[in-house]
Design a protein that fits this description.
mainly alpha; 434 Repressor (Amino-terminal Domain); 5 helices
C-alpha cells in the first residue's frame, strides 16, 4: 500500500487532469482563474506552489470545491511513481 503524502508534483498533475477532463486549455483555465498562463503551467509542472487564494481560484474556474483538488492530488500520490 502506498501511503506517500501528496507532493507539489501530485498537485500539479491533479490540476492538469481536472483541466483536461473539462477539455480546457491552459489559457482558458488561467484566464478563468485570473492568473497568467505561465504561472498555471508552472503549477502543473510543480515549479511553483499556488497560494490558497490561487488554489481556490483554480477550483472555482474548474467548478469544483477546493477539496476536490486535494482529493485528486491524494489520488495522484497513490499512483506508481512517474518519471
Amino acid at each position: 500500500m502506498n501511503d506517500r503524502q501528496p507532493t507539489n508534483q501530485d498537485l500539479g498533475r491533479a490540476v492538469r487532469d481536472l483541466r483536461r477532463r473539462r477539455h480546457m486549455t491552459l489559457e482558458a483555465l488561467a484566464s478563468a482563474a485570473g492568473m497568467h498562463t505561465t504561472y498555471l503551467s508552472r503549477i502543473e509542472r510543480a515549479h511553483s506552489s499556488p497560494t490558497w487564494e490561487k488554489l481556490v481560484a483554480l477550483a472555482r474556474a474548474l467548478d469544483v470545491p477546493p477539496s476536490a483538488i486535494a482529493t485528486a492530488a491524494e489520488a495522484q500520490a497513490k499512483r506508481p511513481a512517474q518519471d
